[in-house]
Write a structure and sequence with these properties.
With 416 residues, the chain is α+β, with helices and mostly antiparallel strands. Helices cover 38% and strands 21% of the residues. It is elongated and about 95 Å long. It binds histidyl-adenosine monophosphate.
């Protein structure tokens, strides 16, 4: 084989793509029930947008972005996530002026140069939402409830909602000193990345995957214990609403998320069946991002989910119940006259939404029947030379094997 899909990318083949369509349809249905409207933003943006939005010190910006210089010497990056681009579009098109709360959803490819493994790819697909314009904790509850609803709708078993609050810059400065003090004499056992994080962005250390660092951080002071009054109240309200909605959650004090734009509420839904890459979706508030990207002070919240991870879970649980659209009719022909009749017939039937196929490989009648069987056609219309002359054909029901003679002029009525 001369060419292969690049490491960390994958083809979604026809035997699988109908399952993806099913997943997408379900997700779109739920998003629209909650009044989110679709936005489609470009797959590449200027690098600066992601560097500023996601944060210079994150693994995504430091190590994982597909960045290149284009012919016009501009630095371009393939989107590693959806939020920054959506906020850019929100600002560019003044969507906030048309509506005080803008509720958007998206589906599409994202790109991160990570080490591929099960559930972790370099080109992967996300579906996600962004609700821009409200600081109300009841919106946090709606967004989280929507995430849970999608898992329910797709029949994911045993998922767990992890919840935390990572406060605002005010709380962070209170946490920072204690945290730095606590970690000071542990520095020598931390990885090089964490040594840099210690100086530049200490909260990022909670995101480290290195086992020694995780161990050292176990007793470290956590953000949620340093929340200012406003953030405390917000968090309490979110939890109250979730309880009222009967949504179970696990308070996860170490949950920080891998992107720097988050404030207050942070959450993830995990499924243990996935093993290492067990986070199905993640999100939270990002009340400062719109301003950071040049807009007015505008609170917002959202989440995104990994579609490959949903596919994996659903396949492992065998709970993806969907069938590919059936082939209603295969028209098997013998002779030129029958073939030309079949072409017109299937054109007309397709206009009546009957899914049809015929033979384009000049196969024998027997081979055409085999093909109809392979393609699981519901019915086969056999038009031989003799039948054609008499204006008749044979209609075979492939399930029962029953065959009936039918006038060619009557075939359309079968699906009327
Ligand atoms: P994220 O946590 O970076 O958040 O990604 C969201 C989800 O995308 C993850 O939970 C995971 O399911 C999936 N995902 C991430 N990286 C990969 C990968 N390399 N391979 C396969 N799946 C992956 C965000 O992207 C934020 N933009 C979410 C958000 C929206 N926050 C607010 N609004």
């Amino acid at each position: 084989m001369k060419y292969k899909a690049l490491y960390g990318t994958h083809d979604i083949l026809p035997d699988d793509s109908f399952r993806w369509q099913h997943l997408e349809d379900q997700v779109r249905k739920v998003f629209s029930l909650y009044n989110y409207r679709e936005i489609r933003v470009p797959i590449f943006e200027e690098t600066e947008l992601f560097a500023r939005g996601i944060g210079q010190d994150t693994d995504i910006v430091q190590k994982e972005m597909y960045t290149f210089v284009d012919q016009g010497k501009r630095s371009i990056t393939l989107r590693p996530e959806g939020t920054a681009g959506v906020v850019r579009a929100y600002l560019e098109h003044s969507l906030g002026e048309k509506s005080p709360l803008v509720k958007l959803f998206y589906l599409g490819s994202m790109f991160r140069q990570e080490r591929p493994q099960k559930g972790r790819l370099r080109e992967f697909h996300q579906f996600g939402i962004e609700a821009i314009g409200s600081a109300d904790p009841s919106l946090d509850a709606e967004v989280i409830e929507l995430a849970v609803r999608i898992c329910d709708e797709l029949k994911v078993d045993d998922f767990k909602l992890h919840l935390n609050s990572i406060g605002c810059p005010k709380c962070r400065s209170m946490h920072r000193d204690e945290f730095l003090n606590f970690m000071k004499n542990k520095l020598s056992s931390l990885c090089d990345d964490c040594k840099t994080r210690y100086l530049r962005n200490p909260l990022r250390m909670f995101d480290c995957k290195n086992e020694e660092c995780i161990e050292q951080l176990k007793q470290a002071p956590v953000m949620v214990d340093f929340l200012c009054q406003n953030c405390q109240m917000h968090y309490a309200q979110v939890k109250k609403y979730l309880k009222e909605l009967n949504i179970e959650y696990l308070e996860d004090k170490r949950l920080v998320r891998g992107l720097d734009y988050y404030t207050k509420t942070a959450f993830e839904i995990k499924s243990d069946i996935l093993g290492g890459q067990n986070t199905l979706l993640g999100g939270g508030r990002y009340d400062l991002l719109v301003e950071e990207l040049g807009g007015k002070n505008t609170p917002a919240i959202g989440f995104a989910a990994g579609m490959e991870r949903f596919m994996l879970v659903l396949k492992m649980q065998k709970s993806l119940k969907c069938d590919e659209k059936k082939l209603n009719l295969f028209v098997a022909t013998l002779g030129e006259e029958a073939k030309s009749f079949a072409l017109k017939l299937i054109r007309d039937l397709r206009r009546k939404n009957v899914t049809c196929e015929t033979d384009y490989l000049q196969r024998s009648l027997k081979a055409q029947m085999r093909e109809a069987n392979r393609q699981k056609a519901e019915k086969v219309l056999i038009i031989g030379e003799e039948e054609m002359k008499k204006g008749k054909a044979i209609l075979r029901d492939m399930r029962s094997g029953e065959q009936t003679a039918i006038r060619l002029t009557e075939v359309g009525r079968v699906w009327a």
